[in-house]
Amino acid sequence: MHVVRFVGSAVDKDGYPELGLPEVAFAGRSNVGKSSLINCLTGRKGLARTSSTPGRTQIINFFSIDDFLMLVDLPGFGYARVPERIRAGWAEMIEQYLGQSRWLRLVVHIVDARHVPGELDRRLLDWLTAHGRRFQVVATKVDKVPRSRRPASLRAIARTLQVNEVIPFSATTGEGKRELWRVLKEAVEAG
Ligand code: GTP
Ligand code: MG
User: Fold this and answer.
1) Cα dihedral: 78, 87, 103, 120 (round 10)
2) What is the C-alpha to C-alpha distance for residues 175 and 29, in angstroms, rounded to an integer?
3) Which of 95, 130, 147, 176 is deepest in the core (most CB within 10 A)?
4) Cα 170 versus chain centre, distance
5) Which ligand 1 atom is the nearest neighbour of the CA of 50?
6) What is the mean pLDDT of residues 3-28?
7) Dihedral through CA 163, CA 114, CA 131, CA 79, nearest 10?
8) Does the Cβ of 58 fall within 6 Å of ligand 1?
């Protein structure tokens, strides 16, 4: 069991906790399953607020794990039904964090295993690459893809995003949890 603690929220740099813990951030489109994935990883169902309606997470939330790692739940991007002004604010919040956090070691980019990633997903990875940020693509909700179609879905995602490895994940079944933890630990140890 992990000792998991909600540390706080932030909308900008002044609010980031400065505990000196290495950070892993979870980024992706609205409603893709970022907060659910954090809950699954930590084994704490109600830790990060989730919802079937997109736009649930609206600020940056920080959760510490065993006082050795900080998990960072970001708002989603690309939700068309949020007014443009607010969407731009969220984008700014996300970009500032990803660009300026001193402790960020890895960005877990989460996509929906059922869909081919879109323009915004490609832009995020281009941006992370340009800014020298290490990332890992995770395809979540894989429980919703029939087993026979999974290899093709994962290949299509990898091809579209031009990455070698996509970790299949399900917050419902816990599939992929061990593999993702391994990647998180590796990134933290690499510094
Ligand atoms: P925002 O904060 O609004 O950007 O959303 P989010 O990316 O944090 O998504 P959230 O975790 O709130 O989940 C969105 C919806 O997807 C919820 O109804 C979840 O129950 C559902 N969901 C998330 N992960 C999975 C999964 O692995 N499998 C299935 N079947 N449903 C999932
Ligand atoms: Mg969320």
Assistant:
1) 20
2) 21
3) 176
4) 13
5) 12
6) 95
7) 160
8) no
Q: Is the CB of 171 under 6 A from ligand 1?
A: yes
Contacts of residue 14, defined as CB under 8 A and 6 or more positions apart, other chains included, come to none
pLDDT in tens, 20-59: 999 999 999 999 999 999 999 999 999 999 999 888 888 9
pLDDT (average), residues 182-190: 94
Asked whether 31 lines ligand 1 (CB < 6 A), one says: yes
Q: Give the number of the atom of ligand 1 that is nearest the alpha carbon of residue 36.
A: 11
